[in-house]
Please model this.
Amino acid sequence: MSSRLYPPFEHEYELRKVIRGMLGGGRGGVFVDVGANLGVWSIEFAPFFDRVYAVEPWPEYAEQLRLNLKDYGVGNVEVVEACAWDFNGQVLIGIGREDDNKVLPNQPGLGVPTVGFNGLMVKAVRLDDCVGGPFRLLKIDVEGNGLHVLRGAERLLGESRGIVVLEVHNHGESHGTWQYLSDLGWRLDRTIEISQGPNWYHAHKVYVK
Model:
């Protein structure tokens, strides 16, 4: 990528304002930013935490993320250049490149059929295997694949207390993630920024424990 890309801090501003209020004024613990993109959430929330894991699979975005962290003087963020998923291996993302975060699921390893797909093979990791301790905030923005991320974080979700912010892209994802989180003791606190039509649904779900 030839041009520099900077964090669009106006994006999801009201949502981040709500989460800042829920966190209060204290500092400490861990923030896991899944789908970190250019670092809007990681940069803004880094002062609230001891450590931040910024998970971003696209190499060009991960590169820009590192540059942005340096530009803003943020030193407590670890960039995890991988796709958070429910297995460790590889996944094919960006099929057709119409949606940078689209993933071809259930195809781990080098046997993924890449012929005919304009995608990129990237590393897939379970959050349980790359995040050491419990989190105080987990944000997931992965274009409809939230349940895969949650399934790879069962240990973390079980031992953590705090806030989970999850962007959902359809009713199926909304219900599936609600059921999974509820079974692990998380309670749906509020739904923010709902938009929907006859055949689609988009919202941010905020869970607490």
User: Anything to note?
Assistant: Helices lie at 13-23, 40-45, 59-71, 127-130, 146-151, 154-159, 171-183. The domain at 13-88+127-193+203-208 is CATH 3.40.50.150 (Rossmann fold). Residues 133 and 155 are 10 Å apart (CA to CA).
